[in-house]
Amino acid sequence: AQQFGMTEALEILGIKTLNQGTSTGSNWFSSNEKIDSFSPVDGKLVASVTTTTPQDYEKVMQAASEAFKTFRLMPAPKRGEIVRQFGEKLRKYKEPLGKLVSYEMGKSYQEGLGEVQEMIDICDFAVGLSRQLHGLTMHSERPGHRMYEQYHPLGIVGIISAFNFPVAVWSWNTALAWICGDVCVWKPSEKTPLCGVACQNIIAEVLKENNLPEGISCLINGDYKVGEMMTHDKRVPLVSATGSTRMGKIVAQACAARLGNSLLELGGNNAIIVTPDADIKMTVIGAVFGAVGTAGQRCTSTRRLIIHESIYEKVKEALVSAYGQLRIGNPLDQNNHVGPLIDTHAVEMYNKALEKVVAEGGNILVKGGVLQGEGYESGCYVKPAIAEAQNHFEIVQHETFAPVLYLLKYSGDVHEAIAIQNGVAQGLSSAIMTNNLREAEAFLSHAGSDCGIANVNIGTSGAEIGGAFGGEKETGGGRESGSDAWRVYMRRQTNTINYTTNLPLAQGIKFDL
Ligand code: UN1
Fold first, then answer.
1. Whether the CB of 114 sits within 6 Å of ligand 1
2. Which pLDDT value is given to residue 242?
3. How far away, in angstroms, is 271 Cα from ligand 1 center?
4. What is the DSSP string of 38-62?
5. How close is the Cα of 230 to the center of ligand 1, in Å?
6. Which atom of ligand 1 is found nearest the CA of 265?
7. Is residue 74 pLDDT above 80, yes or no?
8. 135, 182, 242, 235: CA torsion to nearest 10
9. What was the ipTM of the complex prediction?
10. Contacts from 55-62 at CB under 8 Å and sequence distance 24+?
C-alpha cells in the first residue's frame, strides 16, 4: 500500500516549485535559466530546476578538487561506512523516491521502487568492496626486490545519466567511485532533473552528518552544453556516460582528444532466441516484460525475438494473447502494466518506427497507437506493438526507445539464430530460451552471443547489480556496477622496492660506473 501522495513525497524529498540546480553538497547555486520538468503521467508541471552556468561549474570544480585532496586520504573502509549510511537513507526514502521516479519518468511504481532497490543493493555491494580494493603482488626478477601494485583514487568522476534510469545509474557510479576515494559531479538527464535534486538532498544529509567537506557529491543541470563542460575538462579524468550511441560517440571523442577516459553505456538492440525446446510460458513472461517494461525504454529492453519456425505460430499466438491482457495507464496505479513514454518526442519516434516497419515490408501483428481521452491527457501513452519483420530492415537495426517488438524467424540450427542475434551494431544484452544443453553452451561460447550480457532461460532486461553491466560494439564497451567494474574508478600503480645495497638493473643490463 502507498503511504502518501505525490505532494507529500515531493515535500519529503525537499523538492520545491523552483529548485536550485547546482550543488556541491549543502551549498546550492541558482541561475536565471530554468528547466521545467513535466510529468509524462499527467502532463503537469512537477517543478523546475535552474541550470548550471560556466561560473557555477567553476565553483563546483573547485569544491570537488578541494574535497578530493582530503577524501582520497580517508581509509577506504571508512568511505565504505559513508556509503553504508547512504544505503540506510535510501531505505528510509525508498517509497517517496520510487514514487518520484515513477511520476517524473513514467515507469511503474513497482519499477520505481525496484530502481531504488538497485541503489540500496549497489551500496551494500560497495561497502563490502571497500575492504577489497585488491592489487596483485608479483615476484621480481631481481634479488632482494619486491613488486606489487596498488589502486589509488582517480580524482573527479563526471557522471552523465539518462532519463530511463534517473537514479540507479548515478548510484552504480557514485557508490563505487566514493569507496574508491573519488569525488563525483553528476549531470542528470534534463528530462528528469528532479530525481537528481532529490538524490543530492539525500546524500547531502549523509555528508553533513559526517562533517565531510563540500564537493564529494556535486550536481550540475542543463542540456548537452553543460555535459560538455565536463567532457572537455582536463580536471575530470573519467566521464561515465549513459545514453544514445550518438551521444556516446561525442563524449568519447571529446574525452579521447584530451586523453581522458570515458565509460560508456549506450544503446542496445537486445534479442531473445526462442529455440524449439523453449519453455513457452517462461518465454512469454520474459519477452513481454522485456518488451513493455519501462514502456520499452530500458537499454536492456527486448527488441527482437528470434523464433524457430517449428514453434513460431505457437509463440506468436501466446504473445498476441498476452498483449491483449496488458493494461496501459497511470504507472502509479499498480493495476497497470505499462505507463507512458517519456515525452511526445518519444511518441513521434514510436509512430515513425511503426510506419517504417510497414514501409519496409513488415507485418503488424499487434497494432500500436497513441491513447487519447481521460487519463491519457499527457499524450505520452502508447499501445505496445508487435511486428513481424526481418533482421536486415533498417528500423530493426535501429534502437527505438519504445514498446515495439519485432518477431524474426529462423529455420536452421542455433548457429543461424546466433548469427541473426549478433547481426546488429549494438551488443548489450541477449538471451536464449532452451532446455537443450548444446544450444545453451553454443550460445555462451566464444562463437556465441557477442553481447556484454548473455542469459539462458531469462529475458534480456533486469540484470542484477552483482555482475558487470555493459556491452560491446556500439554499446560502448564500458562496464559498471558489479564484479570488478570498480577498477575503472581507480588508477593503478606498479611499485618495485629494492631492499638490498646493490642496484641490479632489470633485463640483466650491465651499467658500471
Ligand atoms: C538501463 O536501461 O540503462 O538490467 C539500465 C536492467 C536494469 C538496468 C537497466 N537493471 O534492465
1. no
2. 98
3. 15
4. E-TTT--EEEEEEPPPHHHHHHHHH
5. 24
6. 3
7. yes
8. -110
9. 0.96
10. 56/22, 56/29, 56/31, 56/220, 57/22, 57/220, 57/226, 57/229, 59/22, 59/24, 59/29, 60/22, 60/23, 60/24, 60/185, 60/215, 60/218, 60/220, 61/156, 61/185, 61/233, 61/235, 62/215
